[in-house]
């Protein structure tokens, strides 16, 4: 039987882009082909104990060889945009110097295939796969002391950006510098649950600044090489909420907002670091890594802002009741298990889920957080177009007897988040498009292949792709520009189970 949707039509403007997103290391595979050198994620995932089940991106979805089939799939679903990332060590294996033509040719062919099918390519320059050679810091010969904590990496990133923009600027208009620099800095160098797996709070803070600098220098490099480019950055700015109105909880929210959001949005969008960020971390660094002229270099005009949203961040201040018996704060923040906090100087703050249904990542389903986030950025940067560059959910997707995945909870999740996005738009947010994370089940970083975010199921043994019920539902939304009144799958749209 059919389930009626909540009352009221939810319709999107003409030309609104309905897309999907992936990232190079999560889907491409072909890790050792055509001159590609290792990235920090190859090294990390090949190190025992770092990734669930010892999984690596060596084969992933084999998208490097199957991209034509994957683009055809997007076209069949009626998607009008595709957000992908370029693998830095595929196009510039040493992280400096000469490009590898074969790598660039792959992305040219991908862009051409998309354009031929009327799908707008959105290219991201950096989705976490730093060339291993740059992490090694081969300038000084010291091993393991390069990477984003080193200023040099920002300059190398700009050089790489210039080279990609020269090669693809004729066919790609939509350029994103960084994806979620928070994860690169604080999961990569702070808690160590992401590559390169360092656990040094000072290195993490310096990485944040050099990612900001890299963003600004790369933005300038792309503009120089591809004058028609539309530029943006994708931030996972979190809607940070205090658990109560107590002074301690409000203070916790202020501190985490500085470290999660303002450390990036401040310099990139407004040309400033807020004083409270410096004060909160003064015992760790004097921030002398911020040199004269850096803020101006970082603060480049952008055309749009990309927001990745999964769940809000709910925090509380020091609270004896919330601490484990050994005194460590409760950290149900969905950032993975680590003895090291990803919040330099704010290790005493506790994190909570906001209640209600959770996805297979343990993240609360909270669509109001998306409305909140879009409206916040609309207020703070009223001139920027907004894109939801990632949103989606992992569920335990098991194919039914008919071989299909009836992922009705994902359909309910999408309906709720599309409605929340539309709500922000009707209150003024200039949202131009939505990118579902993800097109395909893929390599979910520290979780390996154990978490499935795809609208399309991937059988990794055979590489067979099978659209889930949610993909067919999403195709209907993309075709009609509105949510269906009635969800066509028997048990779909019923909301949380
Ligand atoms: C984002 N956290 O990753 C990435 O941009 C995607 O590549 C990824 O697959 C997707 O979200 C789903 O996880 C995140 O711990 C990874 O807060 C970790 C966190 C946030 C985002």
UniProtKB/TrEMBL annotation:
PANTHER family for the chain: GLYCOSYL HYDROLASE, LP05116P
Protein family (similarity comment): Belongs to the glycosyl hydrolase 1 family.
Active site as annotated: 390 (nucleophile)
EC number: 3.2.1.21
Spans traversing the lipid bilayer: none
Name recorded for this polypeptide: beta-glucosidase
Top-level lineage group: Bacteria
Region annotation Disordered: where it falls in the sequence: 317-353
Organism whose genome encodes this protein: Streptomyces axinellae
Keywords attached to this entry: Glycosidase, Hydrolase
Organism lineage: Bacteria, Bacillati, Actinomycetota, Actinomycetes, Kitasatosporales
